[in-house]
Amino acid sequence: MLTTILVDAIRSAVILGGVLTAFAYVTLLERRLLARFQLRIGPNRVGPLGLLQPLADGIKLIFKESFIPAQADRLVYVVAPIITVVAALFVYAVIPIGPPVRLFGREVPLYVADVNVGILLVLAASSIGVYGIILSGWASDSKYSLLGALRSSAQVISYELALGLAVLAVVMMANSLSLVDIVRAQAHGWFITTQPVAFLVFLVAGLAETNRAPFDLPEAEQELIGGYQTEYGGFTFAMFYLGEYVGVITMGALSATLFFGGWQGPGLPPVLWFLVKVFAMVFLFIWIRATLPRLRYDQLMGLGWKVLVPVGLINLAVTAVVLVWRGGAV
Amino acid sequence: MAVLFGGVACLALAGGVGVIASRRPVHSVLALLLVLGSLAVDYLLLDAQFIAVLQLIIYAGAIVVLFVFVIMLLHARSGEVARVPAVLPPAAAIPVCAVFGLMLLVVLTGAAIAPAAVGPAFGTVQEVGRALFSRFLLPFEAASIVLLIGMIGAVVLGKRLPPSPPDAGRPAEGPGEGRSKRRVELR
C-alpha cells in the first residue's frame, strides 16, 4: 500500500516536473522561433544559445513586487490564477506518455491514472479553466479585464463544443473513453487517416481553446491591453502564462494521443515517439501564430458556431453510420 | 475512505455555509463551486466515475459558469450586497428545521440497512449508457424533448424581430413598428 502510494507520488512528481520544464522551454522556443520567422535572432545572451533565459525570466518575475489593485476583490483576485494553473496541470493525470515499463523489477505504467472516463476528465478540466479567466477579469475591476474576460470565456465555451464533437468521433472509433485504450486502438492505423475532418475541427478548436493566434482576441493588445490578465503582475502573471503554455502542450499531447497513435511508432523508444509528436504539434502552433493574422470577434464566433459545430456534427453522424454499417461497433 | 469522505463532507458543508453567508454574489458562486466539486469527489468514492466527471462538466463547467456570467453582467460594478435579508424570520425557520430534522432522522435510522452490492462494471460509461437506452429510454427521450423545448424557447426569446418583412399575417404593421413595440414590452 505504502509502496504504491510512493510510486504514484514519484510518478506524479516526475510528470509534473517534466511538464513544468517543458513549459519553461516552450516559452523560449516560441520566442526563438518567432524571431526566426521574423528574420530576427531572439534571446540568445543568457547561457549557451539563450538556454538559461526561462530561468532568468522566472527569477525576475518572482522578485517583482506583487500588487493588487485597490478596488479588486482580493480573494477572487488571488484564487483566479490558482484555478487556471490547477486546471491546466490536472489534465496530465490521465495522458499516457508510454506503455508500461519494467523498472527496478516492477511494472510501472507511464501514466498517473488510467480511468475509464479519461478523455471526459480532460474536457472537464478545460471547462473548469474557464473560471480562471472569468474570475480574474471580474476581480480586477478594470474595464479592459472585464471585456477581455467576457470575450475569452465566450470563446472558450463556444469552442469547447466543437472540441468535444471532434473528440467524440475518435471515442466512437476507439470504442472507449480511456486515453490508454484510445492509443491501443491505433495500433493498426492512426486515427488521422480515418478521421481527418475530426482532426481539423480539433486543431482549430484547440487553437481557440488555448487562446492562441489567430484566435488570441482576449489578448488583442491594440484593443484590450492584456485582456483578462491586464491587472496581474509578477508571479501571478507568470501563472497565467503557465496556464496558457501548458494548455498548448496539452493540446499537442492530446492530438498526439487521439490522432497520431500516442506513443506508438517504429524504431525509436515509445516515450521518445510521444515527445516527438508533441513537439511537432507545439511547433505547428507557433508556426500558425507567426503566420496568420487575428480574426475579428464576430468572425470568430461565426466560425465556431456556423462552421465547426455543424461540420463536427455531420462528421459524427457519418462516423456513426459507417461504423454501424461495417458492424464495427455496438 | 472514511477519512477522505469526512474531509470532503466538511468541505461541502463549508461550501454550503459559504453560499448563504457570503456578502458578495461572486463569493457565493465560488462556494457553490466548492460544494459541487466535493460532491464530485463523493461520487468518485461511490465508484461512480462517470457521474463524477459529468457532475464537473455539466454543473461546475456549464451551469455555474452561466451564474457567473449573469452576476458579472448584472453586478459589474463589483460586489453589490445582496438585498435579501440574511436571516429568515422565525416563522419560516421552524418548518425548515423540522423538515431537516425529519430528513436527518430518516437517514440516521436508515443507516443500519446494508448497502446493496454492485458488480465491478458499476458506474462505468457502458453500464450507465445501457441503463439509459434500455430501462430508462422513455424518461431519457422525454428529458431530451424538454431540453429541446427550452432551446427553442431561448432562440425565440433571443431572436430580434425582422426589421421590415411585410408579413402576410400582420399587414397593418409598418416597418420598424414591431421592433419599437417589443422595446416597450421589454421595459
UniProtKB/TrEMBL annotation, chain A:
Which reactions is this enzyme annotated as catalysing? Answer: a quinone + NADH + 5 H(+)(in) = a quinol + NAD(+) + 4 H(+)(out)
Q: Which InterPro entries match?
A: NADH_UbQ_OxRdtase_su1/FPO, NADH_UbQ_OxRdtase_su1_CS
Q: Which residues form a coiled coil?
A: none
Which cellular compartments is it found in?
Cell membrane; Membrane
User: Keyword Transmembrane helix, does the record have it?
Assistant: yes
What is the top EC class of this enzyme, as a single word?
A: translocase
Which parts of the chain span the membrane according to its record? 12-29, 75-95, 115-135, 156-177, 189-208, 245-265, 271-292, 304-325
Q: Which residues form the signal peptide?
A: none
Q: Keywords in UniProt for this one? A: Cell membrane, Membrane, NAD, Oxidoreductase, Quinone, Translocase, Transmembrane, Transmembrane helix, Ubiquinone
The EC number(s) attached to this protein equal 7.1.1.-
GO biological process: what's one of them?
A: aerobic respiration
UniProt key word NAD: yes
- One annotated GO molecular function: quinone binding
Q: Report how it sits in the membrane.
A: Multi-pass membrane protein
Please give the GO cellular component terms listed in this UniProt entry.
plasma membrane
Q: Name one Pfam family in it.
A: NADHdh
Could you say which protein family the record assigns here?
Answer: Belongs to the complex I subunit 1 family.
**NCBIfam families from the UniProt entry:** PRK06076.1-2
Q: What is known about what this protein does?
A: NDH-1 shuttles electrons from NADH, via FMN and iron-sulfur (Fe-S) centers, to quinones in the respiratory chain. The immediate electron acceptor for the enzyme in this species is believed to be ubiquinone. Couples the redox reaction to proton translocation (for every two electrons transferred, four hydrogen ions are translocated across the cytoplasmic membrane), and thus conserves the redox energy in a proton gradient. This subunit may bind ubiquinone.
- How does this chain assemble? NDH-1 is composed of 14 different subunits. Subunits NuoA, H, J, K, L, M, N constitute the membrane sector of the complex.
Name-wise, this protein is NADH-quinone oxidoreductase subunit H
The primary gene name is nuoH
UniProtKB/TrEMBL annotation, chain B:
**A cellular-component GO term for this protein:** plasma membrane
Report the EC number(s), separated by commas if there are several.
Answer: 7.1.1.-
Q: Where is this region: Disordered?
A: 162-187
Bilayer topology: Multi-pass membrane protein
Where it sits in the cell: the answer is: Cell membrane
Q: Where are the transmembrane segments?
A: 28-46, 53-73, 93-115, 136-157
Domain of life the protein comes from: Bacteria
Xref: InterPro entries: NADH_UbQ/plastoQ_OxRdtase_su6, Nuo/plastoQ_OxRdtase_6_NuoJ
Coiled coil (residue ranges): none
Keywords in alphabetical order: Cell membrane, Membrane, NAD, Quinone, Transmembrane, Transmembrane helix
Q: Which reaction does it catalyse?
A: a quinone + NADH + 5 H(+)(in) = a quinol + NAD(+) + 4 H(+)(out)
The biased composition feature labelled Basic and acidic residues covers: 176-187
The enzyme class is translocase
Q: Does the keyword 4Fe-4S apply?
A: no
Query: Where does this chain mainly localize?
Result: membrane
GO terms (molecular function) for this protein are:
NADH dehydrogenase (ubiquinone) activity; quinone binding
Protein's job: NDH-1 shuttles electrons from NADH, via FMN and iron-sulfur (Fe-S) centers, to quinones in the respiratory chain. Couples the redox reaction to proton translocation (for every two electrons transferred, four hydrogen ions are translocated across the cytoplasmic membrane), and thus conserves the redox energy in a proton gradient.
Protein family per UniProt: Belongs to the complex I subunit 6 family.
Designated name of the protein: NADH-quinone oxidoreductase subunit J
Q: What is the lineage of its organism?
A: Bacteria, Bacillati, Candidatus Sysuimicrobiota, Candidatus Sysuimicrobiia, Candidatus Sysuimicrobiales
